[in-house]
Design goal:
Layout (H helix, E strand, L loop, with lengths): L2 H14 L12 E6 L10 H19 L3 E3 L10 H10 L3 H10 L4 H5 L4 H18 L15 H16 L3 E11 L4 E2 L5 E3 L5 E11 L2 E7 L10 E4 L4 E7 L2 E6 H9 L4 E8 H4 L3 E4 L3 E7 L11 E4 L5 H12 L12 E2 L7 H8 L10 H15 L1 E2 L8 H15 L3 E6 L5 E2 L6 E11 L4 H13 L1 E3 L3 H11 L3 E2 L1 E2 L6 E2 L2 E6 L8 H11 L9 H9 L9 H14 L4 E5 L3 H15 L8 E5 L2 E3 L2 E2 L10 H8 L1 H10 L7 E3 L1 H22 L7 H22 L3 H23 L6 H15 L4 H8 L22 H23 L6 E6 L2 H12 L6 H7 L1 H4 L3 H16 L2 H9 L4 H16 L2 E6 L17 E4 L1
Parallel strand pairs: 1-2, 1-25, 8-13, 20-26, 25-26, 27-29, 30-31
Antiparallel strand pairs: 3-4, 3-19, 5-18, 6-7, 6-17, 8-14, 9-10, 9-11, 12-13, 15-16, 19-21, 22-24, 23-24, 27-28, 30-32
Helix pairs in contact: 1-26, 2-21, 3-6, 7-17, 10-11, 11-12, 14-15, 14-19, 15-19, 16-18, 17-18, 20-21, 21-22, 23-24, 23-25, 23-27, 25-26, 27-33, 28-31
The protein binds one RNA strand through helix 15, strand 21, helix 19, helix 22 and helix 24.
Length: about 900
RNA sequence: GCGGGGAUAGCCAAGUGGUCAAAGGCGAACGCCUCAAGAGCGUUUCUCGUAGGAGUUCAAGGGUUCGACUCCCUUUCCCCGCACCA
């Protein structure tokens, strides 16, 4: 960035101090907001776009005379900063490197990061500083963080309502858990196995003497087909008391169950080999034998497996292996499911068909999947087992087993190992007394869907995804043991989960600057009931202040648009609808959402940990804020993914410089006005309309294209037509004034600076240009279009000519061809138009010439853009005088002698090929 | 795997049945200007073409249609989400 730009930005900043504070007024409001940041690091250019695009929209509506509220706050609840501060305290090298080198945190501040609050405080301030630097027109008077006592009071109020509505309930919940850290672990905390999912197995309890042997299965309905159990003879199993009952299972399984809600005590061991050939029994399959199998993994579920050879390829293969050695030949598969495309024993069939050799065959896994999916999709239980489709029977059987036959649940990862960052193995732990938000509630879902129908969603493609998300959401564990945040008002042992304390804060913004003046201890739920719901209670404190807040809320709410990247659709953006629907009456429900695409840096994902980031502040320092803004806006529409490439940014800088010098020159222009001035002014009206429309639709890129390049290219034509003559004084003033205002939302610094020499006041609050239909001059525009097209044709001919040209003759079409063209264009019946036209006396009399003209005009009609055809029909141009008055220009422009004549006055054979809007061109 | 969205010239992108060889920007080439460089301006940028034209294209394959980048089907590839995490 040059010193000049730096000085410019600094001087503009002074003018903007405090001016974007939004206050309710007589004006119509426009309230937009963005998902607030979690300030655990520095902003990069991807964040930049997230806040700059809404700023462009905010600036646009402000200029259109709306009272605009664009607030910002900081989300500091949750656990990440706690981890960060621990790592810094521990002197973890990669953490130190990230914060010291990439985020450029000074050493003394870094030292203070051992307190997590210092991290978020530091970066909140950084965010505000850099956002301001980027020219964001944010009302900072409403800034808050989510750990302030005042905000906590607001959250408590919100949660009272959620609970009163019956949406918060208690339950147990399986989570990934690290015994060493004594904490649940998320994806980010995992060294290995971050894709592992928790699977829910049903434990089928086989009776073995006085003990149970539990077998874990995902397919409880197959219990009817069990022919034997599998045990690994090389493994030593344990006997233990589980919740007062004797179980036999692998040691690993015992350890796992201890985390899953069971009281477990080891009482002895038993070698697997000892279990071989022993009998177990279950009411649903009778007595079966335990057989040896080496595929049984003691670290998978219970370490003992029930065998259903009819429907499970592994079981069949293991059995076949044994039987081929002449053992257990009396055991036969027992079928229980009919499947489309398979016979009595699908697994047997599949295995034999695939030529599986033994139980170590690598293709077995895939084969198993195929059989399982087929059975799940089309399988039906035998009549004697209920006859229901497998997908329904599965749950029903599990239920019966649980209720009557001692079955329970065991959770297990689908892939292993799962390892915590600390190096310890991760287990599935069942957390108790968890609070849940019941997003599964169909009635609640319905409320949200009904409201979604009425919402404005940009781009429209995301609508389907929102509906899918609502359908798909299950109960959400919303209480936490660790992290920063607000405590559950009725159960202060628990903290409110961070995504769940950030769903209605858009309402809090409306009162954020006023509520600071009230002692938090006075902020009872009744106070908020009054502010947000208008509910009166006796003895409300600070009545006057509350009235002020009530007024603000009523003025601003509901918000007009919320902006966020698309990755938040499946949680935050949908959550906030759920919460709004419960807490606020219909008239305060969100009006719209704009969903952004993701950001790339040099074609790769931006990632702080991989060092693939470009900090927003660096970008601003390197190129200037306006350049960064214009590049980000120009790289794609908000909902498209975008890619930041440094080498492309510098040309944006040049464009802004070109704009500045054009405006500066134009302001000193002192020429007289002429036809071409009328043309330019006419064109500007169209540009104003198009830019306005694009902005209204959040098409910021389209708006930029139209406002910058659209006007620039017309201006270039204007300069070309003017030649050396000075621009028209009034026209240039008008152009500059409109142009600067149209670009002000996108490059506000540049425009603010230019504006000071053109008008009083700030361009940020100047009125948005309005198109003036009376200044549209259709015939002048048509005339210029004719010239442009003709020049293009001349150039196209010159390009392929070999001999040096000297003179160009332009032959204008006779008016009867215009009549033909008009008839064709207006004809309702496309197919017979030629015949109809040839019926006309005056045309028919011209014979072959007329017939040719009809064909050519038809052709031409199809080639010209339809809107142009319409315009030239309504304003048939006087081609002769257009070319006569432009002859001098054409001559200079082409550097050739130009002659204009009517085609009937011209002897050249080509003269007859003249058509409407396409004069014959003869170059010699 | 499941759900949602995509694939257009070197790159970013506009374009939803004819008006499309396909807007605009970037990049590149050439020309003008200049002592020169840069900037600026102009032209070109799928292939061919001594007259404003012709030919082959819009991920791949198939289909509907007088006609498809645009509608339908299949395949391949890319992005987002798949949860207790901001």
């Amino acid at each position: 960035m040059t010193d000049e730009t730096q000085a410019l930005e600094a001087s503009v900043h002074k003018k903007w101090e405090g001016v974007f504070i939004a206050t309710p007024s007589e004006k119509q409001k426009f309230y937009l907001n963005v998902a607030y940041p979690y300030p655990s690091g520095a902003m990069h250019v991807g964040h930049g776009r997230t806040y700059i695009v809404p700023d462009v929209i905010a600036r646009f509506w402000r200029m259109r005379g709306r009272e605009v509220l664009y607030p910002m706050a900081f989300h500091v609840t949750g656990a990440p900063v706690i981890g960060i501060s621990k790592r810094i305290a521990r002197n973890d090298e990669s953490a130190i490197k990230l914060y010291r080198d990439l985020y450029k945190v000074p050493q003394d501040i870094l030292d203070s990061f051992t307190d997590p609050l210092n991290i978020v405080n530091h970066f909140s301030n950084e965010y505000e500083r850099v956002m301001t630097k980027a020219g964001l027109s944010i009302d900072w008077s409403r800034r808050f963080t989510t750990v302030e006592p005042t905000y906590s009071k607001f959250i408590e109020w919100q949660w009272h309502h959620l609970r009163a509505a019956g949406h918060v309930n208690k339950g147990a919940h399986p989570v990934r858990y690290c015994p060493q850290c004594e904490n649940p672990v998320g994806d980010h905390d995992l060294l290995e196995g971050d894709k592992a999912e928790i699977q829910k197995f049903t434990l089928i309890m086989f009776t073995y003497g006085d003990a149970f042997i539990p077998c874990a299965t995902l397919r409880p309905e197959t219990i009817y087909g069990v022919t034997n159990l599998w045990v690994n003879p090389e493994v030593t199993y344990v006997r233990c008391t589980v919740d007062g009952k004797e179980w036999i299972l692998s040691r690993q399984a015992m350890e796992k169950l201890a985390f899953q809600d069971h009281e477990v005590t080891e009482t002895g061991t038993i070698p697997g080999s000892e279990l071989v050939d022993k009998k177990v029994s279950h009411p649903f399959c009778g007595e079966v034998t335990i057989l040896p199998a080496f595929f049984v993994d003691p670290d998978m579920a219970t370490g003992l497996v029930m065998s259903v050879p009819a429907h499970a390829p592994y079981d069949y293969i293991a059995l076949r292996d044994l039987q081929q050695k002449g053992k257990y030949t009396e055991i036969k598969p027992v079928g229980l499911i009919t499947v489309v495309g398979y016979g009595e024993f699908p697994a047997v069939e599949a295995v034999e068909k695939a030529d599986i050799i033994n139980q170590d065959d690598p293709n077995l896994e895939e084969l198993t999947q195929t059989v399982y999916s087929a059975e799940h999709a089309t399988g039906k239980m035998y009549e004697k087992y209920g006859g229901k489709p497998v997908k329904f029977a599965r749950e029903e059987v599990a239920e019966v087993l649980t209720e009557k036959h001692h079955s329970g649940i065991m959770y297990e990862f689908d892939t292993r190992p799962v390892v915590c960052r600390c190096g310890a193995r991760v287990f599935v732990k069942v957390l108790h007394d968890q609070w849940f938000l019941e997003y599964s509630d169909p009635a609640w879902k319905k409320q949200v869907k009904d409201h979604l129908e009425d919402m404005e969603l940009v781009p429209p493609e995301v609508r389907a995804e929102f509906f899918r998300t609502v359908d798909w959401l299950k109960d959400w564990a919303c209480s936490r043991r660790i992290g920063l945040g607000t405590r559950m008002p009725w159960d202060p042992e628990w903290l409110i989960e961070p995504l769940s304390d950030s769903t209605v804060y858009m309402a809090y913004y409306t009162i954020a600057s006023r509520i600071k003046h009230i002692d938090p201890s006075l902020l009872t739920p009744e106070v908020f009931d009054y502010i947000f719901l208008g509910k009166e209670t006796e003895n409300l404190p600070e009545r006057e202040r509350l009235d002020g807040m009530r007024k603000e809320f009523l003025y601003w709410y509901p918000y007009n648009f919320r902006f966020s990247a698309k990755d938040l659709i499946s949680n935050h953006l949908t959550f906030q609808l759920f919460h709004h629907c419960t807490i606020f009456p219909k008239e305060f429900l969100p009006h719209g959402m704009v969903v952004f695409g993701m950001g790339l840096l040099n074609g790769a994902k931006m990632s702080s940990s991989k060092g693939n980031v470009y900090l927003l502040e660096d970008a601003i320092n390197d190129f200037g804020a306006d350049t960064v803004r214009m590049f980000l806006v120009g790289s794609g529409e908000p909902w498209q993914d975008f890619d930041w490439r440094n080498e492309l940014v510098s040309s944006t800088r040049k464009q802004i410089e070109r704009f500045i010098s054009t405006i500066r020159e134009n302001l000193t222009a002192n020429g007289p006005e002429s036809d071409i001035d009328r043309w330019l002014i006419s064109r500007i009206q169209t540009h104003i309309s198009l830019v306005t429309k694009a902005m209204e639709n959040f098409q910021t890129r389209q708006a930029l294209q139209e406002a910058f390049f659209g006007i620039e290219s017309d201006f270039k034509w204007y300069r070309r037509r003017k030649g050396l003559a000075a621009g028209g004084q009034e026209t240039m003033k008008y152009l500059s004034s409109v142009w600067v205002r149209l670009l002000a939302p996108i490059i506000p610094y540049t425009c603010e600076d230019l504006w000071k020499d053109m008008s009083t006041g700030l361009v940020s609050f100047a009125s948005w240009p309005e198109p003036d239909p009376s200044r549209i001059d259709v015939s002048t525009e048509i005339a210029e279009e004719l010239l442009v097209k003709t020049i293009e044709d001349i150039e196209s001919i010159l390009r392929i000519m070999r001999n040096p040209p000297r003179k160009v003759t332009i032959c204008i079409t006779p008016s009867w061809k215009w009549d033909v063209f008009t008839l064709i264009a207006n004809a309702e019946d496309r197919k017979n138009v030629i015949r109809d036209v040839m019926q006309k006396e005056d045309i028919k009399s011209r014979g072959k010439e007329a017939a040719d003209a009809v064909k050519q005009c038809t052709n031409l009609f199809h080639k010209l853009p339809s809107d142009l055809v319409e315009r030239i029909l309504q304003n048939r141009p006087d081609e002769l005088s257009i070319f006569q008055s432009a002859a001098e220009f054409l001559s200079k422009d082409t550097n050739l002698e130009i002659e204009v004549s009517k085609s009937e006055d011209c002897r050249h054979m080509k003269a007859g090929s003249a058509l409407p809007f396409k004069p014959a061109i003869i170059i010699e």
